[in-house]
Each structure stands twice: as C-alpha cells, then as structure tokens.
Specification:
Leu-bd, Rossmann fold, signal, globular, 38% helix, five-stranded parallel β-sheet, alpha/beta, single chain
Length: 405
Amino acid sequence: MLAAPLAHASDTYKIAYIDPLSGPFANVGELMLLHVRYAVDDINAHGGLPGGQKMEVLQFDSKLSAQESQSALQAAIDQGARAIVTGGSGSSVVAALVQSVSRWNQRNPGKELLVLNHSSIDPDMTGKNCSFWHFQTEANTAMKMKAIANYIKKTPQVQKVYLLNQDYAHGRQWASYGRQLVGLARPDVQFVGETLHPIGRVKDFAPYVANIRQSGADSVITGNWGQDMTLLLKAAGDAGYDLRYFNHSAGAIPGTVLAVSQSKVGQLTWVAEWHPGEEGVPKAEALAQAYKARTGKDFLAPRIDMTPRLLAAAIAKAKSTDTVKVAYALENLQYDSVVGPVTMRGEDHQLLLPQVVNTIAPVDGKTVKVGWEGTNYGFRTDAVYTGNELAQGTQCKMERPGNAS
C-alpha cells in the first residue's frame, strides 16, 4: 500500500512533534517546537512539498516519559502522522520511540513512519542500536566530546576535572566519553571525582558543588541541560567557585546565558553547529533575524530548523511521500544548510555537520560583540570543526527493507 500521491495537495503531510511541553524542561520543549513550526511554515510559504502538498505539525507532550511518549506515538499514528520529530526527551525515551516505530513499521507495511531525532545524541542510536527508520540530525556525544577534547588539548589551564552528570543514558555517556577522549587528548589531566544525580529533580546543587570543591577540580565535564545546568551555575556562583564547565548544548537553552552572567564566576564552554553572533555564517544570521522578527523569540538551533527541511528535501529527491522511498532518499542526502554543507551518512543515519566550540563570555567588542538574554554576556568562538573531522566509526549493521520501489 503506497501513500497518497504528492499531487493530492488537499492532504497534508503530518509530522508529529513529541517532546516535553510540561514539567521542568517545558521551556526547552517549547523552544524546539517553535523552531520546527517556523521551518514548516516557511516550507509551506514557499510552495510546500512537490505537487503543492503542505506539511502539518501535530504536537504532543512527552513529559520526559517513555510511557507518555508511547501514548503520544499511538495518538500520532491515529491522526495520520508520517514522521516523528523528537529528541528533547532524553536518549532513553527516544530510543524507546524508535523501537516502537520499528515494530509498527514491520507489522504495518505501507503505513511506515520515520523518526527524525534532533537532540538525543547517544552514539548507540546510530551505532549498535541503529535503525533504518531513525535519522540523527545532531552531532552525537562522541563527535561533540571529540571537539571539546581537541579544545582542552590546547588549554593547559585545565588540570583537574570532575564529572557531574544526570543519571540517565546521555549523562552517563557524556561522562564516559569525557573520561575517554579528554584522557587521550590530555594524558596529564587528573579526573578527581564523578557523580550522577537524578535528572530534573535536584533543587539545590550546593552539596554537589561542595563535593566538587573538596576534590580540588578546576573544571567540570557535565552533560546537564535546562534547569539542571542553570541551578548548578547558580550554586557555584553563590559559593564563589570559579569553575570551567564543558557541555554539549547548554548555551542554546533559554536562561543559561543569564545564569552565567548572574553567577559572576566560572565559564561555560559548549559545542553546537552554530552560536548566536558567530561570524562568517551569514545564512544562519539571516535566518536568526527572520525568526526573531516573526516569532519574537531568539533563534538558537539551526539543526532543529533543518530537520523538517531535510525531510522535505528527501521527499523531493524521492518524488514520493512513501516512507520507505523517503528513508532511502535521506541516506547520503547532501544538503546546503545555513551552517554549510551537511551530509546524512548512509551507513548509520548520522548527520555530519560542523561543530563550533564556544564559551559564554562578557562582551568585549572584539571576540564577543553582542550580548544575549538582556545581559552583557555573549558567545566567543574558540574552535570550528567540520563534520568529517569529528566523524567516528560506527558499529551499525543496518537492516534495510528489501525493496525501495
């Protein structure tokens, strides 16, 4: 059974957004949803998919729960979704979604769905647990940590490192790759302690900061995000503890720059495909300005905006909305994004996109020219790496449908 032809413009191509829209990370989920909606509205404003078919976003609250996400998935299927956009619920939740979609697709030929994952970066999802139906549109944990390790290699001030992370799949992997890759880049670095804490449930990080201080650490490798990052910054600032933090994406989360500015001490270095105010990336800057003009909000994540655009490009390449054909078209898709050329690696469905190591720092008119979140703090570019420079090997043994036609 094939999908409705593209020429049937009256039928929308439905994308189900499943991410946290309530609870401690609701602000993150709302930001991600706004990025997706903006991109879909822009695609539709420029004619939609081939044949004039429009894209439509259905939204569901994952509540950071695998069970809630499963309920949302069933509701999305009932409402005719063809693709799932997710990533902000954590790697374990997204992995469960991918498994459920894989089972659904096996049992319901002709009604398959794709999962496009913009933010859950467990390398196993494009490694030993890879799925033909899952596409990763963000650099994974190993790629991001490699970029940070390359930077730490050139930063002799980093001597003693503490690993503080959320107690779930991503937090554990951020710690593991930090110890492994930073250790390889800087064998002289001492790892002086390691702690995992419940995700989204710690209200006061002062006891954790006290433990870090007792260890003598000058730096913290932390995968924390959302309130778990801002509360950590606050606790260290209240204690007057001048720490370096190395993180994957916290700078793109609302409130982080404000928290750094209020803490007065410490510096947060993170890695992403782009940061606000980055020079030499005019397309991203133009998109950020257009986004702000239309939504009134700050634009922070080109990869999330890019996710539905990659899907639309694959549909155009496949000349079909048939999910199997679209999945094959996504494999090895090359796309000229606002942050430069990107490639969806066919062997494991890992997007290869640039990564920028940058630090939240005071505006100085030279390396940091624009303040953010109403503060005099912005982003300083420290290093830029291409997707190919950070690409890792993969354990993926992809099982593909036998017939793409």
